[in-house]
Amino acid sequence: MIQFILRRCLISIPVMFLVATTTFFIMRLAPGGPFLSERAIPPEIQANIQAKYGLDQPLLVQYGKYLYNLARFDLGPSYKYPERTVNEIIAEGFPVSLQLGLAALCFALGVGIPTGVLAAVKQGRAVDHLTMGVILFGISVPTFVTGPLLVFVFSLTLYWLPPALWGSWDQMILPAITLGLPYAVYIARLTRSQLIDVLKQDYIRTARAKGVSEFRILWKHARNSTLMPVVSFLGPALADLVTGSIVVEKIFAIPGLGRYFVESAFSRDYTTVLGTVVFYAGLLIAANLVVDVAYKFLDPRIEYS
Amino acid sequence: MERTPLTAETVAATGACRTASTRHTALARLLPVLALTLLLASCRRESEYFGKTDPPEENVFRFNNGAEPEYLDPGMMTANTDERIAAMLFEGLTQKDPRTLQPMPGIAERWEIAPDGLTYTFFLRRGAQWSDGHTVTAHDFVYAWTRVLDPKTASAFASILYPILNAEQFNQGKLKDRSQVGVEALDNYTLRVRLQDPVPYFLYLTTFFTLYPVPSWIVEKHGADWTRPEHVVGNGAFRLIEHRINDRIVLEKNPRYYNAAQVRLDRVIAYAVVDLYTAINLYESGEVDWMPSNSVPSDFVPHMQGRFRDYSSTPQLASYYFTINTTHPPFDNRLVRRALALAIDRRAITDELLRGGQIPGSNFVPVGLPGYQSPPGPDYNPQEAARLLAEAGYPGGKGFPEMELSFNTLETHKRIAEAMQQMWEKNLGIRIRLHNEEWASFIKTRQNKEHDIARQGWIADYPDPAAFLDLMESTNGNNDTGWKNAKYDALMTASRKETDPFRRIELLQQAESIVLDELPVLPLYSYSVNTLLKPYVKGIYPTSLDMHPLNEVCIDRRWRERGDSPDGHCE
Amino acid sequence: MSSLATTPVESLPAPTLTTSLRRVIRRPLMASCAAVILIVSAASLLAPWIAPYAYDAIDLKLAATAPSAAHWFGTDVLGRDLFSRTLHGGQISLAVGIVGTLVSLIVGVLYGAIAGYKGGRVDELMMRVVDLLYSLPYLFLVIILLVFFSSSILMLFVALGLVQWLTMARIVRGQVLSLRNAEFVQAARLFGTRTPGIIFRHLLPNMAGPIVVYGTLTVPTVILQEAFLSFLGLGVQPPRASWGTLISDGAGVMSLFPWLAFFPAAILAAVLFSLNFLGDGLREALDPRS
């Protein structure tokens, strides 16, 4: 197991390298730059600024320095907010995105699994059709429709919940639902179809024949094999939650990393863009690793050669 | 038809299909959503005010500042989002009267102006302190101003100081000796300023953020980091206690402020909500008390006027126009530019599209400056426009290269751009591509002259026609048109030397008529400021420069008894 | 109905694409889904002829009017006919969905087929690469591409297609692995058919089922991603609009002009719903276990 984790960590190094390199060169190949603008400033001052950020050096030297700093986890100063470093920006924004993602995930699991189980147990009956209908509808509506709709109903008409901002628990509810809804839907579908399969298995039939209660069957016998696909879905889901949160962070004015990323891309804040992309890549790798480990615990039959 | 047609219910009952999903049932599911939306919309409380009107529990004032400030350093900043924060942290020689914006005593108790209009002497008050206990002295101003002018600082607004003797030469590196710049501290409490030209608006400039004093010992110690909450030292009515990027800036009352007794707010929170729809939701639900500077989304504007008492629209000394890059064909041709200008139906844009109290006009200097009247410009005339374009060699738009109209990402700009695109296509037969960019990169595109036509808005820094006409001088750093006109430059230089106010206005009018003939820019309208202000907030008044000193703002908990006028008292 | 869906097929090989398509289409709900897709696609395709107004015809006097006989879906804030804009928007959204999916199919199928057929070291290496690429923050890279190199429609097609090919590659590889030792493949090999011939003439036709299923499910994903990019201002540029831009324009003013978001969102939802449903149905029909 430990060997497996170590190997995966080793493999991730070239991935990070790839991400860093691709992003770096995409940005340097792109037209325009962060400091070319200040026409009102005399040329010698312009040169001073370029030198300060090392932009006067050959591209490969810049690239080398960038990799060197990256290896030391130093992402440099933000070009847009000269008073901040990228490390600080990530340290400020990521916890917010993480809170949002976890809240959404809690919502998705808390709603998705019970719904899926209910639909599976009542397979073929009205409850099943109704929930699955709602569910398919749920993935067909983009978050930037559900978000404003929820705000309209719960913040502006009923005055129950704040329409935006981040800080208190009540400000988390609407964004978490908006972000989590498509995942709740997906998890419910996954749980339902998997549980239906599992309930057809011989060992469940045997248990039923022995007179084991339905609840005990679900909890004792069907639980792990039902949750397997849900767990393996969590890895990509977390990745999606992170990117999906860009939209939710915009709608609800949440100061998360997704919004920083988009805004820094738009304002050509090279260092922040690079920093966030590399950071997210690392995050994705870690998330996938955690999922694989969790998978192993749920199903010890899987071998990691 | 062999099989019995199945209804949705029977399908669901037979279990052949997991869900009912015919087109009808899909619609049937969606329609209730629409119905619910409409129902909720109709049963929302009808009120004279937009949204909640309960004052916050604490003595705190919350507003949406819009974009995240790039700088809190008053010497570096350029945007009004940055200015609103700096105006709370710092105070200049003079401060603005909240109603008229006229300079009134600030750090300077009084001042003398020599009869030739070239020498100003400011006498500083003795009780003024920085928030760390240092005394505010004349040396702080000398330090701050020469720092802004220092080429190494590379401040984008250094040109605001150019009326000062030798300031321009020093800023451009032609003069190395900073002591020759016309600002000196005669003693700790006396500041003497000598001007290059007797410009009448210099006193107003002393209220301006670029001229705020800064604490030299903090700036030198912390460098670019000096404006962080843990370092920053100010001399204004508030001090910075929290700064979360892209989220909020929290300020609290500065107990060391010389006039702290008059400051009635305990705290001010400035949010950085960029999305206007999100912002107005925050206002409606009572999370925000003030929406300054056109942060009301343009779709809402036509529905607010005359319906909500907390909505107001004020003409602003600001001009909305398009900057043409005149350095390459076809826009190096005056006829083409004139054709473009004549083909714009400005009234349709203000009265039908925007409907927010903007004043349409081809004038470059906005309407509303006391004592100034713009010369006539190219008003809507599609026939003449088509004729000129033909004369320029593009009859009916034939052979006209595909050009791009750039604007920064904002719904209003997008709509205006779409309307312009259509007017030009209809009236001239030319096809212009639209290109939107985020603010910072848009600015850069424009300043690098990588644009063909770019949107521009200019808000007066001081109430004087020169605030606009200076922009078109060939040497001005904000002239992104590439347009140079020697006669224009000469007129502007002459206006600066002129001490007779009437003669000066005439010179400026002549200069503007050159712009309106050559048209390196296409003016559309004078702005208006559409604002939402909760009825319990007192001390914020409509002003033509959209500047609102917040030092004396207060929250009136008993506004329902005393009325919603901003003049009210809070005790 | 039930007799159609539950025909015992356990003992049979995987049903072919055409038979399962036929079987699926014969179910009325599936048929309705297909009809929705066909009608909307046809209407979008024919938009220049059937749209009552030009998609960019501004009439400021008609700004934001509610649905009426003259304007079935109402008008937007510039007075443009929303019905016409929705039809034209459909062209772009569907084109993005289809082209994006095709790009992902071409890349994914080729990659997966080669890996699966070659097997061994090559397969190991190629699949490791796919694993690695899975951990790239794709949408971020797409956003960077679109921001830095201006968002042309072509760029949108390619960028979105490249996000999707990985899963396709995995699916195809799995299929090829299970087929490469089948008798007909071995026979072809005996007759001296070269690798490309075997892949294109023998393997791919036998995998059409899963490929079509996954393709059907990819189209809605790509359409949603385009909408997502539109919401960030990176989709098609005005005056053109996709469903995504129409919805994101309408979402902010939901309380004032609910129809602006409702109609494009309803049509988008109906199409995505139908595609997802159809894809699911096809998958079930193709799965011998069902």
Q: Characterize the quaternary organization of these chains.
A: heterotrimer
State the helix count of chain B. Answer: 18
Low-confidence runs of at least 5 consecutive residues of chain A? none
CATH C-level name of the domain at 315-528 in chain B: Alpha Beta
Kindly state the mean pLDDT of chain B as a whole number?
86
Estimated radius of gyration of chain B: 27 Å
What secondary-structure arrangement, pairings included, does this model have?
The complex is a heterotrimer of chains A (305), B (571) and C (290).
Chain A: H1 2-29, H2 43-52, H3 59-71, H4 86-121, H5 126-140, H6 143-157, H7 170-199, H8 202-209, H9 214-251, H10 257-266, H11 270-298
Helix pairs in contact in A: 1-11, 4-5, 4-7, 4-9, 4-11, 5-7, 6-7, 6-9, 7-9, 8-9, 9-10, 9-11, 10-11
Chain B: H1 8-14, H2 23-43, E1 60-64, H3 80-89, E2 94-96, E3 103-105, E4 108-113, E5 119-124, H4 138-149, H5 167-171, E6 183-187, E7 190-194, H6 202-205, H7 216-222, E8 238-244, E9 248-253, E10 267-271, H8 276-284, E11 290-291, H9 301-304, E12 311-324, H10 334-342, H11 346-354, E13 359-360, H12 382-391, E14 403-408, H13 411-428, E15 432-437, H14 439-447, E16 453-459, H15 466-469, H16 486-497, H17 501-518, E17 521-533, E18 537-538, E19 554-555, H18 559-562
Parallel strand pairs in B: 1-10, 14-15, 14-16
Antiparallel strand pairs in B: 2-3, 4-5, 5-7, 6-7, 8-9, 9-10, 11-17, 12-16, 12-17, 13-17, 18-19
Helix pairs in contact in B: 10-12, 16-17
Chain C: H1 2-5, H2 17-26, H3 28-45, H4 47-50, H5 82-118, H6 120-134, H7 138-148, H8 153-179, H9 183-190, H10 195-206, H11 208-231, H12 243-251, H13 258-286
Helix pairs in contact in C: 2-13, 3-5, 3-13, 5-6, 5-8, 5-11, 5-12, 7-8, 8-11, 9-10, 11-12, 11-13, 12-13
Report on this structure:
The complex is a heterotrimer of chains A (305), B (571) and C (290). Chain A is an all-alpha fold and 305 residues long. Chain A is 76% helix and 0% strand. Chain A has a domain at 93-255: MetI-like (MetI-like fold, Orthogonal Bundle), CATH 1.10.3720. Chain A has helices spanning 2-29, 43-52, 59-71, 86-121, 126-140, 143-157, 170-199, 202-209, 214-251, 257-266, 270-298. Chain B has helices at residues 8-14, 23-43, 80-89, 138-149, 167-171, 202-205, 216-222, 276-284, 301-304, 334-342, 346-354, 382-391, 411-428, 439-447, 466-469, 486-497, 501-518, 559-562, and strands at residues 60-64, 94-96, 103-105, 108-113, 119-124, 183-187, 190-194, 238-244, 248-253, 267-271, 290-291, 311-324, 359-360, 403-408, 432-437, 453-459, 521-533, 537-538, 554-555. In chain B, strands 11, 12, 13, 14, 15, 16 and 17 form a 7-stranded mixed beta sheet that branches. Chain B has a 4-stranded mixed beta sheet with strand order 1-10-9-8, covered by helices on one side. Chain B has a 4-stranded antiparallel beta sheet with strand order 4-5-7-6, covered by helices on one side. In chain B, helix 10 (334-342) packs antiparallel against helix 12 (382-391). Chain B starts with 7 loop residues before the first helix and ends in a 9-residue tail after the last helix. Chain C has helices spanning 2-5, 17-26, 28-45, 47-50, 82-118, 120-134, 138-148, 153-179, 183-190, 195-206, 208-231, 243-251, 258-286. Chain C is mainly alpha-helical and 290 residues long. The two termini of chain C are 15 Å apart. At the B-C interface, helix 2, helix 11, helix 13 and strand 15 of B face helix 1, helix 3 and helix 13 of C.
